[in-house]
Amino acid sequence: QTCPSGHSNTSSSSSSSSSSSISAKPSASDQPLPSVLSSPFRSSLRYDVFVCHNDEDSDLAQSLASFLEAPSNGLRCYLQERDCPAGGAVSTELLQAVQDSHCWLLLVTPNFVKDDWCSYQMHQVLSEGPMSQRIIPAVVNMPRSQLPLELRFLFTVDLNTNKEFGYTLVYKTVLHCEYFVSIIECVHDTSSIRKSAILVAVNVNNVIYPNGTHKFC
């Protein structure tokens, strides 16, 4: 199986057809991007966010990616239909992209849960970091009771009622993820007990403010 040289989405779902592009609010010229986005840790991987979605939800996925990649937000997203090189083996390119991303966004819709390929990607992501706070399920038109069992214990982002708020929450979650993991990477003691203690401390005390700055309480 190879990646297509181009992507044509002729079908539409209720979630994709109703989605509209949401632009990130322009930042003031004197307000730089959050410092975590210029950290050496961030540059160690090619992408900030791997976006997993069903083909019928491509419009929504592209709208969300455009928001995250806007100059005022500055993230780097992976979209298979856009970033998979022509002629590359899908499974190989997918695994490489998963491993080369700081966070993994699962766009969970009715189309997603019926798609075997999305299920495969979801399990690849879960195998990489099941409890690492790097998985972000963004849910559209899906009650929690219908989510895949593997995702029901995770915090989810609701894109149903207020997409702009949901997009912003995804952005802040990515910043938290990158900051969180960068703290862990700075710890040279690999003792599981010490690492667990740090995970709890960062999770409880780290605060992300609306402007993307970080502070320890």
TrEMBL record:
For this UniProt entry, the molecular function terms from Gene Ontology, in alphabetical order, are: Toll-like receptor 2 binding; Toll-like receptor 4 binding
Domain TIR: residue ranges: 45-173
Q: Where is this region: Disordered?
A: 1-35
Gene3D superfamilies in the record, alphabetically? Toll/interleukin-1 receptor homology (TIR) domain
Pfam families hit by this protein: TIR_2
Provide the coiled-coil residue spans: none
* Record's compositionally biased regions (Low complexity): 1-29
BP terms from Gene Ontology? positive regulation of canonical NF-kappaB signal transduction; positive regulation of chemokine (C-X-C motif) ligand 2 production; positive regulation of tumor necrosis factor production; toll-like receptor 4 signaling pathway
> InterPro entries, per this entry?
TIR_dom (IPR000157), Tol-interleuk_rcpt_adapt_Tirap (IPR017279), Toll_tir_struct_dom_sf (IPR035897)
Q: Which GO terms describe its cellular component?
A: cytoplasm; plasma membrane
Domain of life where this protein originates:
Eukaryota
The protein in question is named Toll-interleukin 1 receptor (TIR) domain containing adaptor protein
What taxonomic ancestry is recorded? Eukaryota, Metazoa, Chordata, Craniata, Vertebrata
